[in-house]
Write a structure and sequence with these properties.
9 helices, 21 strands, alpha+beta
């Protein structure tokens, strides 16, 4: 019985091996075989299978080039917005056309690149490196008409949270850091963070998730199981070329919260102390976020203002804040006051008919314990003095 089964197995396999031209083994041949012939045939079959497997294993995959961190990325600070992808340095912020010009690709998920977006349509673009996603970025088409993603050409300000080491490319962040590095390397490369959470997230700068948030800094989280770097997020809102144009910031047609009046409001920034600024509008509020340099320290500054009418104002509106830190009326009759209001400064600029209230929030980018409001009181006064409407 055993010999019969072996005969059938050998016949089937030998037929498949000889079907391409070699002499076929027949049942009559097998009937004349001795035990030694069977053992030899089985050895040849085993050799044949081994050879096939070895040939399969020898199929070489394309080699991925190994890149080292460039000196520029090693020397880059947490506020640089710089990333190295393979051998290329990528500077945030950048446009989609910049990304393509660097030799990278993108897709729109299930949409084609020729898809036409209408005004106020929301979209998301995936940035690809060697066919693998680097990050995705959401955008809103604000202009009228129908346009492709190429025509919209969105500005990419941040990566979002990167939690998976890439397989098809290498990546380095400021300080030359990358996935899998020992967590001790973080402070060695970048210094003490602004914040270190209980879940071991190192935060340098500020990376908000709101579309109105300032993207300026670097966040790194640690995999506490193996004590290595597990995820990154990096961003930078605007580049240096935008600074000069924002010396005076003007908001047109700002609505009054209590009347139908529209106002044009302007205020001054100081180009020698200013870095990236992001200006936003939201309903009846207007505002901006920026970093400023003051006494060789970096600070985050956010201002939000709105307008109301004098006829609806209460006489004791600001009494809870105590005496103003600054109180002055200019030659045009505008009274400007500055209060310390909880964790903010409050600038109140009033005329006979209207009141503008501007909240100014300040904090040290690298030292959360500093009494920032005492250090930057003069800056806040200059801010209040600059407001016009």
């Amino acid at each position: 019985m055993k010999k019969l089964l072996l005969s059938l197995l050998i016949l089937c396999v030998m037929f498949s091996l000889t079907a391409c031209g070699d002499k076929t083994v027949t049942e009559a041949d097998i009937e004349t075989w001795s035990d030694e012939d069977f053992e030899k045939a089985l050895e040849e079959l085993d050799d044949s299978f081994t050879s096939d497997n070895e040939e399969t294993e020898e199929v070489a995959l394309p080699e991925s080039k190994i890149y080292e961190a460039k000196q520029e990325i090693i020397d880059a600070g947490w506020d640089s917005g710089l990333v190295q992808i393979d051998g290329k340095l990528v500077q945030f912020p950048f446009s989609l056309s910049d990304w393509v010009a660097m030799g990278f690709d993108y897709d729109l998920g299930s949409l084609s690149k020729d898809y036409l977006y209408a005004q106020n349509n929301k979209g998301s673009v995936r940035l690809l490196v060697n066919g693998e996603q680097f990050c995705s970025y959401s955008f809103i088409k604000t202009t009228e008409g129908f346009e492709t993603i190429e025509a919209i050409n969105p500005i990419i300000k941040e990566t979002g949270l990167l939690v998976t080491p890439p397989k098809n490319f290498s990546i380095f962040f400021p300080g030359g850091l990358t996935f899998g590095d020992p967590y001790q390397n973080i402070e060695e490369a970048l210094g003490k963070p602004l914040n270190l959470s209980n879940s071991m997230v190192y935060t340098y700068g500020e990376l908000g998730y709101s579309p109105y948030s300032l993207k300026y800094g670097l966040s790194i989280s640690v995999n506490r199981n193996d004590q290595t770097i597990g995820s990154f997020q990096i961003g930078k809102s605007l580049d240096a070329s935008n600074i000069e144009a924002l010396t005076t910031i003007t908001f047109e047609n700002v609505p009054n919260r209590q009347t139908s009046d529209l106002h044009n409001v302007s205020l001054s920034w100081f180009p020698e102390s200013q870095e990236p600024t992001e200006v936003f509008s939201h309903k009846a509020q207007r505002g901006g976020r920026t970093t400023i340099m003051y006494n060789n320290q970096t600070y985050f500054a956010e201002f939000i203002f709105s307008l109301t009418s004098q006829k609806y104002a209460r006489s004791n509106e600001y009494s809870s804040y105590g005496d103003p830190l600054f109180d002055e009326t200019d030659e045009n009759g505008m009274r400007r006051r500055l209060y310390k209001a909880d964790d903010n400064y409050l600038a109140v600029c009033s005329t006979d008919a209207f009141i503008l209230e501007a909240t100014l929030n300040l904090k040290n980018a690298m030292d959360a314990s500093e009494d920032t409001y005492a250090v930057l009181q003069d800056f806040a006064i200059e801010f209040a003095k600059s407001i016009q409407y």
